[in-house]
Amino acid sequence: MSTLYICTTCGTQTDCLNDPPVKCLICSEERQYINPNGQQWTTMEEMVSSKQFKNEIKYEEKDLYSMKTEPDVGIGQTAYIVQSDNFTLLWDCITYIDQLTVDKIKKIGGLHAIALSHPHYYSSQIEWAEAFDIPIYIHEDDQEWVLRKSEKIVFWSGESLKLSEGLILHRLGGHFKGGAVLEWNKGNHHKGILLTGDIIQVVTDRKWVSFMYSYPNLIPLPAKKVIDIADKVAKMNFDRIYNAFHRIIQKDAKQAVQKSAERYIQALNGTLFET
Q: Cα–Cα distance between 90 and 121 in angstroms, integer?
């Protein structure tokens, strides 16, 4: 009997298979990791029937909700529901979905599309797309990482894609070649919000961000790429950032990206400190 397996470490769902894979494609490379206890799999049916999980949907600010599964599933990321001019977008995805979640989202207006920052948050994106009968937008540079194929997926190309008035995807690369951020220039009372996933990472000190090739394995990006990211972001309209772990830079976020890029490059070049 074929099964849609879910990797318990990253939360990504596979195509239908007769047997679980030996290892997860997403986890078995240096930007992620195989569980030290070995590769483990579950299914959506097992998760729902366990009655262990619940999705918390939280109002953040006008036209913006966050959504996270408790307890953590996979990487434990936060997804966001963005409402802009009669178009509602699910930014990034979480693994767990049940009828209660679908009903709650429909009550606040439903969804019109899903857009992803990078492969670590593909999770069970097809389950979500089928539940709401909506398309998924993924940059074509990352299509090799899609573990469950579907006609719901739209592979976009180029450096930017306008999803609706005020919602624009931008390919920045870095963490993944097709790594994208979402510019929502009508958010935050038209001061703009940038939703970054892990492509730009808000750090513990909320006045700064960082940039990495691998977060769990602490592999930095080269200075040239960080300069490229900072240059692209400088042209966007935003004053606030939300990342994939509900870390927020409330104001002056655009300046924070620029000064963080400068500090990062100084550290790589050996001019920030002596040790």
A: 12
Q: Which DSSP string do the residues of 51-118 spell out, in sequence order?
A: T--EEEEEEEETTEEEEEEES--TT---EEEEEETTEEEEES--S---HHHHHHHHHTT--SEEE-SS
CA-CA distance, 65 to 63, in Å (whole number)?
Answer: 7
Percentage of residues of the chain with pLDDT beyond 90: 99
- pLDDT of 245: 97
Architecture of domain 3-269: 4-Layer Sandwich (3.60)
Helix axes 223-233 and 253-269, enclosed angle (nearest 10): 170
Strands 193-195, 240-242: pairing kind: parallel
DSSP class of 173: -
Q: Residue 111 — very low, low, confident or very high, per pLDDT cuts 50/70/90?
A: very high
Q: Is the peptide bond preceding residue 71 cis, with omega within 30 degrees of 0?
A: yes
Domain ranges of the chain: 3-269
**What b/e sequence results for 65-94 when a residue is b if at least 16 CB atoms lie within 10 Å of its CB, and e otherwise?**
bbbbbeeebbbebbbbbbbbeebbbbbbbb
Mean pLDDT of the chain: 97
**Residues 207 and 263 sit within 8 Å (Cβ to Cβ):** no
Taken as a whole, the chain contains a residue count of 275
pTM passes above 0.85: yes
